[in-house]
Write a structure and sequence with these properties.
By secondary structure, this protein is mainly α. It is built from five helices and no strands. The longest helix is centred in the middle third of the chain and has 25 residues.
Length: 114
């Protein structure tokens, strides 16, 4: 039940703000569900796929989806996902944490500056 509740909260945040899947779910999987870093990241990606697809369908029905931009970004995302997935096995958890913290810091500062 706890895991479904976590999914519900993350799905709500993701649907409302188009964020939260990875930003919130990775730390939740790591610290609340006690998963190791790499397993948490892989599981998070698996969880995000259905949330993103359902949300995109709803956004599309409301004419909020820019297909041209979305397809181009998806192509880059697929290539980046392949590279990132392969690098995940080569980078230690310590450096993954450092990169993730730097990314979160950058994202937070970027939001504040808007």
């Amino acid at each position: 039940m706890k895991k479904i509740l976590i999914g519900l909260i993350i799905g709500f945040i993701s649907g409302m703000f188009s964020a939260g899947g990875g930003l919130i779910l990775v730390p939740v999987c790591t610290y609340v569900l006690k998963m190791n870093e790499k397993e948490a990241r892989a599981t998070t990606l698996f969880c995000i796929v259905p949330m993103v697809l359902v949300t995109a369908i709803i956004y599309n029905k409301n004419n909020f989806l820019n297909w041209n931009l979305g397809i181009k970004c998806a192509i880059g995302g697929i290539i980046g996902g392949i590279i990132g997935g392969k690098l995940l096995n080569k980078i230690s958890n310590k450096y993954l944490n450092i990169f993730f913290i730097l990314f979160l810091f950058y994202a937070g500062v970027n939001l504040l500056m808007r």
